[in-house]
Write a structure and sequence with these properties.
Blueprint lengths: L7 H7 L12 H14 L13 H14 L1 H9 L7 E9 L17 E3 L2 E11 L2
Antiparallel strand pairs: 1-3, 2-3
């Protein structure tokens, strides 16, 4: 199995959650394209041709997002077992000149501490 493709086991779990109306294109190829973009971090325009035309895949991704398909899929696949919860955080440093910019978009969440000027990012994940 290729690194950026959905496995048979995962596909069987997901396919019943996908829309039955809409384009007749293969949902599995479409999901592989979305996984490829999310895992590589590449722009949509760099999507390999074997996964479809980038603009077609992107438009379908946006339609599904607007229709709430991704939220329903994630809710259905979410693991209700939270017995394993990992918390982590890291300090993100900012250049001292970042403090002087005009705050046109509201507060910037930057501050001074003993370690210097910056902010802190927190993450929590579950896993088996």
């Amino acid at each position: 199995m290729a690194r950026h493709t959905i496995s048979g086991k995962d596909w069987r779990r997901v396919r019943r959650l996908l829309p039955t109306r809409g384009p007749k294109a293969d949902h599995r190829t479409f999901l592989n394209a979305v996984l490829w973009v999310s895992r590589t971090g590449a722009p949509w325009r760099d999507l390999p041709r074997r996964l479809g035309r980038w603009n077609t895949v992107w438009r379908r991704f946006r339609r599904w997002a607007g229709a709430g398909v991704w939220g329903r899929v994630l809710d259905a696949l979410r693991d209700p077992d939270l017995s394993t919860l990992v918390l982590d955080s890291t300090v993100v440093r900012a250049h001292p000149h970042a403090a002087g910019a005009q705050k046109t978009n509201g507060p910037q969440a930057l501050g001074r501490s003993r370690g210097g000027f910056g902010t802190k990012a927190h993450a929590s994940v579950t896993g088996k």
